[in-house]
Amino acid sequence: MKEYELNVRVKVLMPAELEKSDAELVEAAKQATETSYSPYSHFQVGAALRMESGEIIKGSNQENASYPVSCCAERTALFWAGANRPGQAVRAIAIAAQSKGRFTDDVTGPCGVCRQALLEVEHRQGSPIRLLLYSESGVHVTDSIEEIVPFSFYAESMGSEE
Ligand code: THU
User: Which residues of the chain carry a pLDDT beneath 70?
Assistant: First the structure.
């Protein structure tokens, strides 16, 4: 038998310790929770992307009575960026969530579907997307999406060129 470990390096910083542009991005993710449409889960998620131009693009979760139709905050922001800022790299994404009128004590990590969507953008642009997860006890930062998706699936996994 062989055994190995896969490690993820996570930095935890208090908002005051963040670089100005990261602090601004986290604040934008927190603000984005206000536009969440979540009458079913009552869980308000906000995401904010830092584009290579410096622009911030915000997204929030948008739900539907037919639950699977709903879209997470991360993909709302990511697909808006793809549609309206084509060809521009995403440098970072910040995520925050509110439940029962307050920001969560624990981080809200992107769901598996959003990780896959973020991973393809990262792979396609050829540069990492930093991840900043807000919680009341600190901001958890990783250097890329790839790091939080071990055994990643890409088009190349099917043996295609795309
Ligand atoms: N949700 C997000 O928007 N992003 C995440 O990272 C986790 C979950 C949304 C989906 C749904 O509207 C609500 O949170 C509860 O799952």
Answer: 160-162
